[in-house]
Write a structure and sequence with these properties.
Length: about 425
C-alpha cells in the first residue's frame, strides 16, 4: 500500500478538498430568508445562522455544488473565507492578510474584490476597500508561494465583501452570474420579476402541481415557468454554468457531474398540470412561449393573449399569482385604481380561488375591494413591495374507497 507521503501532491490536494468542511452563504431577497432557509434544509444541509438577506450553512464541497444547482431562491452561493472586525484601513489590511488565502487560491488564480458593500461602518469607500484587500491578499500569497508576481491566468475567484457595523465578511463567489439567470429568459418584458423572487413567492403559497395556477400579468412568463419547473422537480441550475466548476482545487469535477446526474434523475415529467399565463400584449406572449421552450417546460404551460378584464376559469380552488403594474411612471399612476378594481372584481367572480399579489402600489387593497388575509414586506431590489395573500377555502379532501358521510367545512387555504 502506498503511503500518503508517496502520493502525488495533486492527489493529496484533491483528497483534502473532498474532506474539507466549509461555511457557505446564500444571499437572498430581504424578507424571504425563511424560504431560502427551508430550501437549504430540504437539501439536507445544516443552517448555522440567518441574517437579513443571508443564510449561512455548512457542508463539504458537495454542499456548495448542490446549492448552486438546486436552490431556487438564493441569489448566489458564496464560500466564506473569514470574518473579522475592522475600523481602520490598517486593520482591514492586516486582518485580510492573516486569512489562509493559500487554502483557496492557487498560484495562477485570477482574483479580485468584485463587490464591497458597507452599512453603518467606519470604512465606507468601496473602491478603497477593494484596493486595500487586493494588496493584502497578494502580500499573503507572495510570502506563502515565494513568488513576486502572479500571472492570474487560471480560474476566476471573485470576492464579495460585506461590512456591517464594522464587522467584515469575506467570501468567494462560486456562482459567477447571479442565480436568477437560469439560462432560459433571453426575452424580457418591461419591469420583469426575477426568477429567484418569483420562485420564492410561489413557495410562500400552498400551491402544488395538482392545483390550477394562473398569472394574468405573465409578461415574459417567469411565474408560470418557475411553477412548471417546480411541478417537474427540475433543478433551476441545470441549463447554466457556474464559476465554481473551474475551482478544481476546491470543488472537484466529479462532484459537479454527480450533482447534475442527480438533478436529471429527479425530473418527473409525469402527471397533468394546469398552469396558465395571460397578458394583454401578444408580442409579450410570444416571448413568454419562447422562454418556456428554452426552459424545457413549454408543454406544461398554456399562454394566451387576454386582458385581465377577461379573466375567468370554469374550475374551482385555483390560484392567482401576479405582479401587476405598480405605476412606476407618473403617467401610469392614473390608470391604477381602475386596474386594481378590475383585478378584484375578476377575482371575486372566481369561485373558491386564492389570490397572491406582489405590488408597490400603496392603495392596492383599497381598490381590490378586500383586505388581505396577510401581507409580507419584501424588497424587490431597492423597492419596497408587499406580497398580499387573499385566501380562499381549501378544496375538499378526496374520499377513500368505501368512505361515506359529510365532510366538515373547508378551512381557509394556508401556506
Amino acid at each position: 500500500m502506498r503511503r500518503m507521503a508517496d502520493m502525488p501532491q495533486s492527489f493529496i490536494r484533491r483528497k483534502n478538498a473532498l474532506n474539507k468542511e466549509y461555511t457557505w452563504i446564500a444571499p437572498c431577497h430581504f424578507g424571504l430568508e425563511s424560504v431560502c432557509r427551508k430550501e437549504i434544509q430540504d437539501l439536507g444541509l445544516t443552517v448555522v445562522r440567518v441574517e437579513d438577506g443571508r443564510v449561512f450553512f455548512q457542508g463539504g464541497p458537495e454542499a456548495g455544488v448542490r446549492a448552486n444547482l438546486f436552490l431556487r431562491t438564493a441569489e448566489r452561493v458564496l464560500l466564506l473565507v473569514g470574518e473579522f472586525y475592522a475600523v481602520t484601513f490598517d486593520e482591514l489590511f492586516d486582518r485580510t492578510r492573516s486569512l489562509p488565502w493559500e487554502e483557496y487560491l492557487p498560484k495562477d488564480a485570477k482574483f479580485w474584490v468584485a463587490k464591497a458593500s458597507s452599512i453603518k461602518s467606519q470604512l465606507f469607500s468601496p473602491s478603497d476597500i477593494q484596493s486595500i484587500m487586493k494588496k493584502a491578499i497578494v502580500e499573503r500569497l507572495r510570502m506563502v508561494y515565494r513568488i513576486g508576481w502572479f500571472p492570474e491566468t487560471g480560474a476566476e475567484f471573485p470576492l464579495r465583501v460585506f461590512l456591517y457595523k464594522d464587522d467584515v465578511t469575506v467570501a468567494l463567489d462560486s456562482s459567477g452570474e447571479s442565480l436568477h439567470k437560469r439560462g432560459y429568459r433571453t426575452l424580457t418584458a418591461r419591469a420583469p420579476i426575477s426568477e429567484t423572487l418569483a420562485a420564492a413567492l410561489i413557495l410562500l403559497t400552498p400551491w402544488k402541481r395538482d392545483r390550477i395556477l394562473v398569472d394574468p400579468f405573465c409578461g415574459s412568463g417567469t411565474f408560470p415557468i418557475e411553477a412548471a419547473m417546480m411541478a417537474m422537480n427540475m433543478a433551476p441550475g441545470m441549463n447554466r454554468e457556474f464559476l465554481g466548476e473551474k475551482w478544481t482545487n476546491l470543488l472537484p469535477k466529479k462532484i459537479w457531474y454527480d450533482a447534475v446526474n442527480e438533478a436529471e434523475d429527479l425530473i418527473d415529467d409525469t402527471g397533468e398540470t394546469d398552469i396558465q399565463g395571460y397578458d394583454i400584449d401578444g408580442e409579450v406572449i410570444r416571448d413568454a412561449r419562447e422562454n418556456a421552450r428554452a426552459a424545457g417546460v413549454d408543454h406544461r404551460i398554456h399562454f394566451q393573449q387576454r386582458p385581465v378584464s377577461a379573466l375567468s376559469h370554469p374550475k374551482k380552488y385555483g390560484f392567482l399569482i401576479m405582479n401587476p403594474p405598480y405605476g412606476e411612471r407618473l403617467e401610469d399612476k392614473a390608470a391604477l385604481p381602475e386596474l386594481y378594481r378590475t383585478i378584484g372584481e375578476r377575482f371575486a367572480a372566481l369561485d373558491s380561488w386564492s389570490c397572491y399579489m406582489i405590488t408597490a402600489y400603496e392603495d392596492a387593497e383599497r381598490y381590490f375591494g378586500r383586505k388581505a388575509d396577510r401581507n409580507r414586506k419584501i424588497y424587490n431590489g431597492m423597492m419596497k413591495t408587499y406580497f398580499y395573500s387573499f385566501l380562499g377555502p381549501k378544496p375538499p379532501k378526496r374520499r377513500r374507497p368505501g368512505e361515506t358521510g359529510m365532510r366538515p367545512e373547508h378551512r381557509t387555504e394556508e401556506p
